[in-house]
Amino acid sequence: MDAGKLLAGNRIIPVVVIDDVDTAVPLAECLLEAGLKTIEVTLRTPAAVEAIDRIAREVPGMIVGAGSIRNSEQVDEVLRAGAMFGVAPGATGRLLTAVDRAGLPFVPGAATASEMMRNLQRGYRLQKFFPAEQSGGIDYLKAVGSPLPEVRFVPTGGIDADLARDYLALPNVFAVGGSWVAPRKLVESRDFDAIGKLAAAAAV
Question: Which of 13, 62, 106, 162 would staple 177 via disulfide (CB 3.0–4.6 Å)?
């Protein structure tokens, strides 16, 4: 299954940083209860892989993915942990070969038309636009929509709740990823009430 089919209908993808693995399950449960059925756990902390494993095993109904994948070793590692999809900030030939071989539904990153075209040549019609706001934002995605009509994007980077709505109005935006739904400080302090309110507002 490709990432587009797996993630279809999920227009907000919370991008989370987990420092304490014990927060993983309650965080995922909180998001799911609020109506968000996907979570991208970034590989930025030592707890990330175990957090993916716990969510995959203990939170049925949550589509858990691994973000910030940068090399082939991480592809194998997150698959063993139960990741259902992967996301990368960019893409290299070696990484895409590893992903293809492993069969992991994947969203490679791109910030320029050339990068988008290279991903498209490898068969990736769904791509992460990163860092979105720093790379031209909504105007840039509007501009590339005509010459690259096959590509749909998951913009991530510098996006808040208000900007998310504007991005989602674009015809070539599949979903929006962002940390505003579950900010790292709220996760660290286990303020799941506050996260639940942010998630519920995003899910509308």
Answer: 13
